[in-house]
Amino acid sequence: EPEVTQTPSHQVTQMGQEVILRCVPISNHLYFYWYRQILGQKVEFLVSFYNNEISEKSEIFDDQFSVERPDGSNFTLKIRSTKLEDSAMYFCASRTDRGSYNEQFFGPGTRLTVL
Amino acid sequence: QKEVEQDPGPLSVPEGAIVSLNCTYSNSAFQYFMWYRQYSRKGPELLMYTYSSGNKEDGRFTAQVDKSSKYISLFIRDSQPSDSATYLCAMVRDSGNTPLVFGKGTRLSVIA
Q1: Which of A21, A34, A43, A110 best probes binding to B when mutated, by most B CB atoms within 10 angstroms?
Q2: Which of A87, A107, B70, B82 has the least C-beta neighbours within 10 A?
């Protein structure tokens, strides 16, 4: 069964460093999302991406964040200068563009620890 | 008022019990209501979704939506130890490219 994959599973970085989180969405999916979950908190929307551009972004997704689909299969989230409060699980999700409601399929997440 | 409220638990029940999980919400624009299951160190996995008000049944799981009360429920019958997980409610305004809004999740343990 096709699934969303994410790498790395765990990333440890120093405050101020840049990190890139990678996702491979399901191959025929057209919409892509990043969510994050701070320990003990809700899963929060960061950004959605369709047709090679950002569709919607939340207040969390400030200038330190960027997304890219560099090669038609990967979907990346870059944090330019990490802060302690960026420590969280980051989930990538994707969905198709067929019919009525479409399920967002989530990857297993990347645990980001900022020291 | 928070957009989606969910009691985080933890909730511990004996095997075979009926489990009731609930969320309330404030935004009347929500039309699709989902329940996700999340095992430790995994991503959320869709269990069920319901459009607008009403009930939906899938095996041991029943989802209910009461839009007049802004209240949704998930019932698990004959609960099993394998049902032990965190259950997240989520909602979305429409079927288009809009983000999911999640509750905090309820951690459920089913004891054999």
Answers
A1: A43
A2: B82
